[in-house]
Amino acid sequence: MAKTLKIGSVGLGRLGYEHAKNIANYVTGAELTAICDTDAARVAQVAEELNVPYTYTDVAEMVKNPELDAIVVVSPSMFHAEHIKLALDAGKHCFCDKPLDTTVEKCKLAEKAVEAHPDKVFMLGFMRRFDDSYAEAKRRIDAGDIGKVVLVRSYTQDPRTTIEGTLKFAPHSGGQYLDMCVHDLDLIRWFTGAEVKRVWAIGGVFEFDLYRELNDADNCCATVQLDNGAMGFMFTNRTHGAGCNVETEIIGTHGTLRIANVGAKNLLQIVDGSGAREEYYPDFLSRWHQAYINEIQEFVSCINEGRKPGVTVYDGTKVSQAAYRCKESFETGEMLVNE
Amino acid sequence: MAKTLKIGSVGLGRLGYEHAKNIANYVTGAELTAICDTDAARVAQVAEELNVPYTYTDVAEMVKNPELDAIVVVSPSMFHAEHIKLALDAGKHCFCDKPLDTTVEKCKLAEKAVEAHPDKVFMLGFMRRFDDSYAEAKRRIDAGDIGKVVLVRSYTQDPRTTIEGTLKFAPHSGGQYLDMCVHDLDLIRWFTGAEVKRVWAIGGVFEFDLYRELNDADNCCATVQLDNGAMGFMFTNRTHGAGCNVETEIIGTHGTLRIANVGAKNLLQIVDGSGAREEYYPDFLSRWHQAYINEIQEFVSCINEGRKPGVTVYDGTKVSQAAYRCKESFETGEMLVNE
Amino acid sequence: MAKTLKIGSVGLGRLGYEHAKNIANYVTGAELTAICDTDAARVAQVAEELNVPYTYTDVAEMVKNPELDAIVVVSPSMFHAEHIKLALDAGKHCFCDKPLDTTVEKCKLAEKAVEAHPDKVFMLGFMRRFDDSYAEAKRRIDAGDIGKVVLVRSYTQDPRTTIEGTLKFAPHSGGQYLDMCVHDLDLIRWFTGAEVKRVWAIGGVFEFDLYRELNDADNCCATVQLDNGAMGFMFTNRTHGAGCNVETEIIGTHGTLRIANVGAKNLLQIVDGSGAREEYYPDFLSRWHQAYINEIQEFVSCINEGRKPGVTVYDGTKVSQAAYRCKESFETGEMLVNE
Amino acid sequence: MAKTLKIGSVGLGRLGYEHAKNIANYVTGAELTAICDTDAARVAQVAEELNVPYTYTDVAEMVKNPELDAIVVVSPSMFHAEHIKLALDAGKHCFCDKPLDTTVEKCKLAEKAVEAHPDKVFMLGFMRRFDDSYAEAKRRIDAGDIGKVVLVRSYTQDPRTTIEGTLKFAPHSGGQYLDMCVHDLDLIRWFTGAEVKRVWAIGGVFEFDLYRELNDADNCCATVQLDNGAMGFMFTNRTHGAGCNVETEIIGTHGTLRIANVGAKNLLQIVDGSGAREEYYPDFLSRWHQAYINEIQEFVSCINEGRKPGVTVYDGTKVSQAAYRCKESFETGEMLVNE
């Protein structure tokens, strides 16, 4: 067996904690050697739970630890570029959760840091690409099973049951296009193999007035035309009547692939007075549990096997540019060209 | 266009009225010329509604009407053989709803009546055979699509929402095996092309004590072995948690066909707090609406085109024999040979 | 029973013949008394088959027949307004298949003809509204089951298996937006209860060069914003990998309704080497068979019961206007306001 | 974090290797400290791959290793009771894959060994109980969601694509009832909370003559009546037209739960010329991958948390007794009482 990679993980929020647990328990060829968060008490608690030898409250300190081979960045989005640079400059491989950062300018800084360390593995975490169903769809498209890709439709719907937490987070989320649609934009680029050329984004406040104050929407969509002529349609909302729904459909000239969330929670069908039904995943962490494991596993395997990941730093910048263009289109009401 | 067949229909109960409406409105090449029921007021009411010129309260009188070409029998089951004989002896073609009659002895009388009039069309109403899905399954089996038929599993489940009417009807129904399983037995014979050789039937009273008084069950099943080695499994209950559920599965050596009721009511999928769901048909009349039309249409077309129907009087006897054997097995607890 | 309405039907093309058969065989309270087509041989053939007493090759002649109560117009689209006016001016009720006509100007002429005869029933044939699944979706929306309507997504996909005939018809079809999207536009207006305000339509030629010559697309979509803030997305193509697919999804603030074509052909599920699968309807006539009957039935019932249909002449004009706006957006590449 | 349990695993066949990998990589709170197999070369290879410090070719030697806390038995079924006794007598906790052993007599020996060491954790591996869907079904039944359990129907179907290996294994498998139905029997007992009272088992050779020579069947079923009046139906075959299909349905007096394999491989729906379809898992190892992890995880957690597992040694004996009774019924053609 290959040597065990020693990983330091930054950020212990909801998703950061998930990543920490996954590295400690489910990723093979790696171990969780250090954790870092500004909340010292949380750091101590998680270190105890997961048996982590080194703990930090400052990323700049952690990256100096000579035992560490790689850094996993799950800090707040606005620090991503900074932490990426710290990690790479310290000679560590680096995995960063999406988005690359919160502005296109800072994305460019991350690009520079990556380019300055071509011998290091850098990977961006678009975890949907590592879900079994999405991965199989990509393989079938690449194999030509559905002909030319014509339209990618992708929905990201959060359950209304979690609306309270969502509303609290809303002012810091960057808005629907930057927080939610980035996943769909990445999928559209990935499945079409093309870049977003023109966008028209519309939406509105159908229920929660807070979004109006934020110049945002609780339900919105964006239509995009790609530079190879293919089309994309995204819809996102915070008020899905059932659980977490992420569905993506790829229509080709010879066939269609659909990945929906229906019945996804497990294989159970329930027949009762409401008919025959399947329940949804209650939230995104349960939906993408295995994909989050798979993506870190891929990062670790890339390092251990000397490969480069399929998701690059440039994917992060391209997606952010397109998301900002959608946001601008939504705000101005105009169809815009993305250059 | 062929000449229009003149039909007299016997019985204006729930299903008899459905047949009368179908003949009057949806069956081509035929018209409803006479109706008969012991309830004179009901006869008058339906005649007015459907514009029927001749009305009767006595079947023996109706069959003397020289204008009539054919008789449709939807009277209570215990009169079927008698009415079939009356119709055929009067020189009319005859369609009879299932079952052929309530005892094997009376089924044999019906057989004799049919044999005495080989020039007349006689057809027994196993309407499931005339449902599009069942008809297509049969075509695929005959085409060899699933190899040899190994197992036919068939469920007949009534919704608990209609339990009140069901309990009232229970003492006169003949019991689950004769009232419900006859449909499944006909399908098992039809899809396997074989006869029932051995049966073991079990069941019990899980909720409604009335069935115990009747020496019957509210939930019961029967396993059968056919004379070509194929197998059949039936389940029937009166307490289905959702609507009307009739589902049939045919497992072959090379493939499987399934006809289920799920989502059958129409194509609507509803996503709400209960998940993603499809509703069931509320009752058997809505489930089989088109099949009831199709079967009378086939009867009319057989007469108009000089063909013989695929469902014979012998199918009625064979099914009744097997159903009685199941009932006996249920009552004695023994596995029985059907001879 | 109400008096039987006498109908004269114009046009015996593929759909016209379907309507003629439906009136003759399945619509209650009406009979097919006259047919008209420029092809005299076809008229004679259908009259023989369906037992139709009066035959014509000129609509102006047919509408003079004093026995007729109503005219059903299924002539080529460019004659619709003219035939509507002929029928109404002759004192007949009138049903017209979609679209109302081929230009907004001619739609306005039809409006005037209808307004001149307020005592006559006029109904436009958007048959999807009369499909059981669509009708139930509308009832649930009106009952508030899914909250406010946020997005209506509607696809109209023709199977590639019928591409040969489609290509022949393409030069006379009016293009995807006028021929296909009019159905989706009607549904979007119906389900949202609002009018199309802004449109952006994109598409391309992914496979069949003929569409490039016609300044049309073989795969295209349109995004619309309605005047109440709701959104609509349409996609249409001529190259669906499986059979006829029409699917519509209505996302509300509290729930979602989906009407898809999958498994629609019937209830049969086939398990074989390809997995577990349901087949599609092979073509639009089989998909909408019952809806075509239902719409004429509604027209007849409106007349016989003194009611006015829910689909008005103005629906026809509004849909055509929006479709032309989509076409213009597709041709110019611009997002356009629909006024 | 709790101390890490040290596990020695016996047997490196297809499933034994799967268990070894799971313990080494995915089970938390435990590590794979020793492996044992009669094939020394295989032991060396797996030890290298999974970094296992101790290796053995003799179970009796391995259980002497004082570092080991627990033994996982995945040796050939005929050695299960012997290895269980060796492990427990050596003071180790013990997990044993199903079946408990190959005869009821040897099952009783295992029972005695377990009873002699009440302080040790013993767990039998019926992994289906640890699949998320099955576990949720059990929770819902226990919560009374579907009322009283009336019928459990359970299928175990192997894909015909793997028939070659299946035929090689057939002479040593114990036959369909002991090799396949034991899973279904365990589920029927688990979901009904009752014991098998009467059985009738039928089947036949529909395709592969080898099974006739073995006095076995390639397609067979068994109907059982439980001592509380509930019913069970099992079907098993080696010739499933698609992939691995395990489906279980629990019909209660107020609702039904279904766990099917359709669309289980992942969430991908494929639309092409064959219709809209979902693929099956290709084999049982991919179907139950996570369940195999979960069951060992439960075993480890029981030890670390001082709990006793829900699957006992007596479950193993009861299932074997019922399976033998089914086999005897199949061979004699009689309905039999299970005492």
TrEMBL record, chains A, B, C, D:
<dbReference type="InterPro" id="IPR036291">
    <property type="entry name" value="NAD(P)-bd_dom_sf"/>
</dbReference>
<protein>
    <submittedName>
        <fullName>Gfo/Idh/MocA family oxidoreductase</fullName>
    </submittedName>
</protein>
<dbReference type="InterPro" id="IPR055170">
    <property type="entry name" value="GFO_IDH_MocA-like_dom"/>
</dbReference>
<feature type="domain" description="GFO/IDH/MocA-like oxidoreductase">
    <location>
        <begin position="134"/>
        <end position="258"/>
    </location>
</feature>
<dbReference type="GO" id="GO:0016491">
    <property type="term" value="F:oxidoreductase activity"/>
</dbReference>
<keyword id="KW-0560">Oxidoreductase</keyword>
<dbReference type="GO" id="GO:0000166">
    <property type="term" value="F:nucleotide binding"/>
</dbReference>
<dbReference type="Pfam" id="PF22725">
    <property type="entry name" value="GFO_IDH_MocA_C3"/>
</dbReference>
<dbReference type="Pfam" id="PF01408">
    <property type="entry name" value="GFO_IDH_MocA"/>
</dbReference>
<comment type="similarity">
    <text>Belongs to the Gfo/Idh/MocA family.</text>
</comment>
<feature type="domain" description="Gfo/Idh/MocA-like oxidoreductase N-terminal">
    <location>
        <begin position="6"/>
        <end position="122"/>
    </location>
</feature>
<dbReference type="InterPro" id="IPR000683">
    <property type="entry name" value="Gfo/Idh/MocA-like_OxRdtase_N"/>
</dbReference>
